[in-house]
Amino acid sequence: MSLLVIRELSVDFPLPEGTVYALSGVSLELGEEERLALIGETGSGKSVLAGAILRLLPAQARVRGEIWYRGTNLLALSPEEMRRFRGSEIALVMQNPASALNPVLTGGYQVREAVLRRGRLAKRLAQGKVAELLARVGLPERAASSYPHQLSGGMQQRLLLSLGLALAPRLLIADEPTKGLDWSLRSQIVQLLQDITAGQRAFILITHDLAAARYLAERVAVLYAGQVVEYGLAEDLFSLPRHPYTRGLFASHPARGLKPIPGMAPVLTSLSRGCRFQPRCGQARPVCAREDPPFVEISEGYFVRCHRCFR
Amino acid sequence: MSETVITPHVSFHRGELWSAITRDRAAFAGGILVILLVFVALFAPWLAPHDPVRQDLARALLPPGGEYPLGTDEMGRCLLSRVLFGARISLAVGFFVGGLAAILGMFIGLVAGYYGGLLDEVLMRLTDIFMGLPNIVFVLAVVGVLGPGLKHTVLALVVMGWVPFARLVRGSVLSLKEREFVQAARALGFSHWRIMVRHILPHALGPVVVLATLHIPHAILAVAGLSFLGLGVQPPTPEWGAMLNAARSSMRTYPLQMVAPGLMVFLTVLAFNLVGNGLRDALDPRRRSRFTF
Predict the structure, then answer these.
(1) Is the dihedral of CA B227, B232, B237, B240 positive or negative?
(2) DSSP 8-state symbol, A86
(3) Does B198 contact A at CB distance below 8 Å?
(4) Model ipTM value
(5) CATH of region A2-89+169-310
(6) Do B183 and A149 touch (CB under 8 A)?
(7) Degrees (nearest 5) of the Cα angle B44, B49, B51?
(8) What residues make up the domain containing B138?
(9) Verdict on whether the full-model pTM lies above 0.90
(10) Does the distance separating the beta carbons of B190 and A56 come in below 8 Å?
(11) Contacts of residue B194 in chain A, CB cutoff 8 Å?
(12) pLDDT for B156-195, tens place per residue?
């Protein structure tokens, strides 16, 4: 049974300058203990997707579609019911630990607060849990009495992860957890993410870090301009990417030739008909500009949104 | 592990706040004066040479010296004792009105800023209405309806006093609630109350403390003024404003009777204003950088 099923999820933001179509028709499935990486460039809608799952988008966001979590449509829950899901069922580890941690509370206080979110615990029990969580993410005990600004970037990321784990959620979403870290720290954090997710919980990794995605995720979804353009098992997707955008994304990676994709991602306020990647696509055909490409299952469990890829 | 705990360099410490205040000589002098006044108010029964309300018409309007260091008033009461006891009412009113107005305004501003929408609209229009009311007229109206007395004056001052606090806190909350650590707290499923009180309010507190300190002398002056008009503290309770009023009749023949309570009002208000200004400068990040780097 699937833990999370997203059906035809669309999010747009009506703004005075025009409506921003941040996500259009996103459908994804996540099994229990399955790990999914969301990759795509900045502005492709990765963080909006995380915000939509947790219903943390700004009030003016228009969300359509369905998000089923263990048989419950999250979009139909009352705000109070949704609040109880956050942290305990689905936890989000936000990007930028330096600003996502409260600067006036010590690390220990913030972890304890998260542990006690569901209700009171005996003092000793709570203290034990805090110590256990800090140890779990590899923080020394003294981090409990430190304020966030006294911790290094890597330690802040670890502290933020421990907050996400505090209530043992079934699904952990991490938004660019390796952003802004140097290489050695990055591999430490990736290893930590492996330790706290593998075989224990479902995980959605939002990242630009292709190596981390490949290492941590069983399945990958590539987002472009608010649409999933390619979705399948990580090993298939990394060994033989089908969509021209995915290929371009991989080719632009420094390790694979540093070849940028020409052009710019479309402005999400004025979307024309046809494939959204077509203006930048080297293999575009006339049909690509005329018709929206369907999201087609080209082999079992492997989906691509491209006219070229299945004809 | 290669990661280490770094000692803070630009953080804000109690020690730094202290050094910022002591460097500011005016604020330091104000602080000493406030402490002195609080001391006088607390220990008035031991410091005062006489019972402040005991009348002795045979010794009315005595000049300073001897048994009565500041002389006596028209009822033969010891002026020094009355001035010392007067500090109790003035300071109590100042702290009470300042504190209660701050707390009330803080929560109204917090709720309005956090929830936004209709609630914010209603609360902010309410503050507009209160801001539009002339302060002293409102207090006079309340006292006119409920009758003169300290309780009613204090009530009226609190009802008028919360407005600037609500405005101030709402403004801070509007920007604070968009900060990432508040979003992160929401992502962990904390209750609105916890997010407001634990995660937002502490960040909005600095300016509130400054405003509260500056609000205290305002309340002290208001009560002294109303008592002078005979609407606040009623005789024979020793209060500076009421004493000034009583001294009015013999002002030409016996001016000292006005100088003592007048000077006390002046010094008290000055002291709190100096501390308030000092706190404002010390808590201002643009000025603070001077002390931290």
Answers:
(1) negative
(2) B
(3) yes
(4) 0.87
(5) 3.40.50.300
(6) no
(7) 75
(8) 20-43+71-292
(9) no
(10) no
(11) 113
(12) 999 999 999 999 999 999 999 999 999 999 999 999 999 9
